[in-house]
Automatic annotation (TrEMBL):
E.C. designation(s): 3.2.1.67
Pfam families: Glyco_hydro_28
Gene3D superfamilies membership: Single-stranded right-handed beta-helix, Pectin lyase-like (2.160.20.10)
Lineage: Eukaryota, Viridiplantae, Streptophyta, Embryophyta, Tracheophyta
Keyword field: Cell wall, Cell wall biogenesis/degradation, Glycosidase, Hydrolase, Lyase, Secreted, Signal
Catalytic function, reaction form: [(1->4)-alpha-D-galacturonosyl](n) + H2O = alpha-D-galacturonate + [(1->4)-alpha-D-galacturonosyl](n-1)
Localization per record: Secreted, Cell wall
Role, per record: May function in depolymerizing pectin during pollen development, germination, and tube growth. Acts as an exo-polygalacturonase.
GO-annotated biological processes: carbohydrate metabolic process; cell wall organization
Protein name: Exopolygalacturonase
Span of the signal peptide: 1-17
Species: Rhynchospora pubera
Amino acid sequence: MAQTMSLLLILLSLSLAASNGAYNVIDFGAKPDGVSDNKKAFLDAWAKVCSSTQSASIYVPPGKFLVSEAHFMGPCKQNSVEIYIDGTIVAPSGYTSAPKWILFQYIEGFSIFGGTLDGQGQSMWNCRTSGSNCSEASTSFTIAQSKDVKIQGLTSVNSEGFHMLIFQSSGVTMQNIQISAPSNSPNTDGIHLQLSDHVIIQGSNIKTGDDCISMGAGTRNVLIKDTYCGPGHGISIGSLGSIAHEQGVQNVTVSSVVFRDTTNGVRIKTWEKHYQGYVQFIMFQNIVMYNVSNPIIIDQRYCPHNKNCPNQTSGVKISNVIYSNIRGYSDTEVAMKFDCSPSNPCQGISLQDIRLTYQNQQAKSFCDNASGFNSGTITPPSCL
């Protein structure tokens, strides 16, 4: 019901934009033929809106608009820029050779409603899976060093790399986001947060080849709710601790999320290196798992190919993590795994009303260097 209302509001907003004198990209020379490069037309429309001293908006009508690498830069002269998209924005086929395809940077107070971004990432995926020497995969959509941002009803399909990146930004609300890429598409994280705070992600549907949502260093005050994840690698905090002087992650709530056919459910992951950091005040609650390989997992022994980190222990301190009302089916026998650092044991892990089974039988839990508390029914039996 909530998603239906959100969709109706988006449709109403798009209708109002089309009728209330928004700057139409067609008027700046854009052609919805899927062939012509419309980068200049889109940037010209942005320059007009961003330089306006009054509230202004851009309208992208139905059609397929090819746009090469486009960076929409601020600051703008007012803090109520709006973009309404009825069409599909398409990246060039083949490698884009651009780390950021669509980028919004240094902007305070703007909103995007509707629309589809098609990253056409198949060529990049083929290159990566073949083991060839590939260029850097492009992130389809980036919000960087911005404030008070609302993204509603935006769809991203087939990104070369990350679908969406929120970097060094605050006050970002993402509603009714739809993300889709094949389960075997490499490194196609749905939404990645880095050095950002006060972020809300809700009412979204993410199907991809890597983490549905990932949170890197410096992520704080995040709420993820009413969201579907799968296929993919779950919702992850990390990986953290790969370099020195990283900021920690704190005050994250993941609530009312459904995972289906994912390799992980809720995961905290740190490198097996000595670099210090922290993860604290985390809440995972009201979650349902269907055929998830690692429903609940803390992994502090991350060291791909045993390179650059053997014989070390993680310096990231994990504490005050709550798992509450989590139920469903594990695809592996160990449904709860707390594999923590011997030099920085996990502390304050709280399990409340956990019901996870494996092939209609009792699953198992695993603990190493972890301590905490249990309340309510805990299945499988807790090892804390």
